[in-house]
Write a structure and sequence with these properties.
Largest sheet: none
Structural class: mainly alpha
Helix content: over 70%
Low-confidence stretches: 229-235
Number of helices: 10
Mean pLDDT: 86
Order of helices and strands: HHHHHHHHHH
Radius of gyration: 28 Å
Distance between the termini: 88 Å
């Protein structure tokens, strides 16, 4: 009888120990959740606006210089949060705020560029469906070289802006899908550089190559400048 009582007591003690362990685990999880919620509450006031500001400028010039980026974000914040921005009107105070947010802005820039490149690729293949065999980063260099040197790819590379029977070029179709019918000239430059990156027979890569794209954007800006047209892409922003 005594032995049975001891066994029952030990079982109860073990059960209590397990319950206490579970309670500790639940408390730990609860504390972590509360900490995360508290962290979100303490997010900076500018965070909810900066990402949209980044999208605006990246759509228009993929690689803005820091000065242009800072100015654009300042203007965007002034529009979106005028009361908050009153204390940062003076250049010195704005520079202090900019140093706090520039790392986050830079992160948003990289992230959005990657997202934009993906969108451009997707719509390019959509518009070329049935016209070209699809290749991607998993395609071998040998197969990619053969694909890029084909007559079809060469034709599309040279005729991006050639209109079809509906009076729409491939470039126009892609630009419209990515940016809509209100797309700017700079939006078109961005799309053109990215699509040429994909199709250029002399360029060995299919993934977006920043050096290649920047060189194309510089060329477009120079050509536009030589034609004496007003453009919004400066020599410092691409």
């Amino acid at each position: 009888m005594f032995d049975q009582t001891m066994i029952m007591f030990q079982k109860q003690e073990k059960s209590m120990s397990q319950i206490q362990t579970q309670i500790k685990q639940i408390r730990s999880i609860t504390e972590k959740l509360e900490s995360n919620i508290e962290g979100k509450k303490k997010s900076e006031w500018w965070e909810q606006y900066v990402e949209d500001g980044v999208k605006e400028i990246i759509n228009d010039c993929l690689y803005p210089k820091e000065e242009s980026l800072s100015l654009h974000i300042k203007r965007h914040l002034t529009v979106m949060a005028p009361e908050k921005m009153q204390k940062y009107e003076q250049p010195t105070k704005w520079n202090i705020l900019w140093r706090r947010i520039e790392e986050k802005v830079g992160s948003y820039c990289c992230s959005y560029r990657g997202s934009l490149f993906g969108t451009i690729r997707r719509h390019t293949w959509s518009c070329l469906k049935g016209q070209l065999d699809k290749v991607d980063t998993s395609t071998s260099q040998t197969e990619l070289a053969i694909w890029k040197s084909s007559d079809k790819v060469r034709w599309w590379y040279k005729n991006l802006e050639t209109s079809d029977e509906d009076n729409e070029s491939l470039l126009y179709q892609i630009v419209t899908k990515v940016f809509g019918k209100s797309a700017t000239k700079n939006n078109t430059f961005v799309i053109k550089a990215c699509v040429q990156n994909m199709l250029d027979p002399e360029h060995p890569k299919i993934e977006m190559d920043e050096d290649y794209i920047i060189s194309k954007l510089i060329k477009y800006a120079d050509d536009e400048s030589n034609n004496n047209d007003s453009i919004s892409v400066s020599s410092d922003d691409y």
